TrEMBL record:
InterPro entries: Pur_nuclsid_perm. GO terms for cellular component: endoplasmic reticulum. Coiled coil: none annotated. This is Purine nucleoside permease. Residues 405-419 have a biased composition (Basic residues). Keywords: Signal. Residues 1-30 form the signal peptide. Pfam families: NUP. One of its GO terms (biological process) is transmembrane transport. Residues 391-419 are annotated as: Disordered. It comes from the Eukaryota.
Amino acid sequence: MVFQGYIKRGSMLTRSITALAALIVPFVSSESSINGGHQNAPAIATRDGYSTQKVAPKVVIISMFDGEEEIWFGIPEFDILAQNITVTGFSPQFPAAHCTADGSICQVVTAMGEINAAVTITSLFLSPLFDLTSTYFLVAGVGGINPEVATLGSVTLARYAVQVALQYEFDPRELPANFSTGYVPQGSYEPNVYPGSIYGTEVFEVNDALRKFAAGFARTAVLNDSTEAVAYRALYDTPEGIYKAGTEPPSVVECDVTTSDNWFSGRLLGEAFSNYTKVLTNGTGVYCNTAQEDNATLEALLRGHIAGLVDFSRIIIMRTASDMDRPYPGQAATTNMWYSNQGGYPPALKNLYLAGVKIIGGIVGGWNETFAQGVNATNYVGDVLGSMGGTPDFGPGPASQGQTSKRKRATKRQARSHL
């Protein structure tokens, strides 16, 4: 396929974003000039010379590491390496954004983990080199999969992103007898309840109408698989059928993503985070995929939206399944993490491209008819605090409706408990 008409994964995280903004805003002011009411961007090196025109992509692919980055190189649909643009504040490992010659499609690589993601995405929208006000962002990464919901190689598209590790944590050997997990929501005193103390990054909800467009485009792809993955899936076949979804071929599944800097493996952790996803989304979210970056990426983009630099309703969260998040019956959790040849990683990378290129083609190809003006959301879009306006359909409600006092009450409870 050739697209016609255009060239072919209150906290340290919060402090990191704030500090970065202080560094980059002076750069924006000094590197940009106003002439005749128009902002002139610094010169951008291209294969054919230099350009001073801001890049205004229709789609930005957000990758997290080199494997996810390089799957987009040398593809027939478009040349993502036609422009390589060094951006102040990007990771030293991945200092440049890649763009097609006409700038309609770009790619950034955040480096792995929440802090790297937040800093890179903040650097992107604060850069004077880009106009991102009409850009769609395609988070395109691999991750672990919950075999109760999907399988190796599957393409998942999320409505919710849940920061599952932002909790109190106790060593399981020191738990009370009635605790099912060592994770307890902050400001609370038992597992599986809503947090008594909210930071604001615990859960995000993105545009579900846009997600359905993306799922429709992705389902036109013929997904990749491997013989190793086929054999490994068969190990999850149980008489009870609890992992039936994990035994089936790869498909496109609409389910939700969790964020944790900690890689985890095991049925108990998987069940704990699945339960917490339901708690934070008022029973709506379905945990299927693991990530290290997505809530950080979304928090940065939310701040960019509030600043008028990006549109938070134009975000698609796509993760492909590289490995099972828990062992098959009889296998050790450590073996699942370290020693099993699951065969899911190669097809997961390939399916990032195979499904992602359909989504990108659908957006760019339908730009004038549908996507230039944006896709109207039929659901709440934003964070747990209602920072962008509107009323969250999960959580305690917007900040203007008592969130501050709730946070203070939680702090007082914690202080009394430590006296």
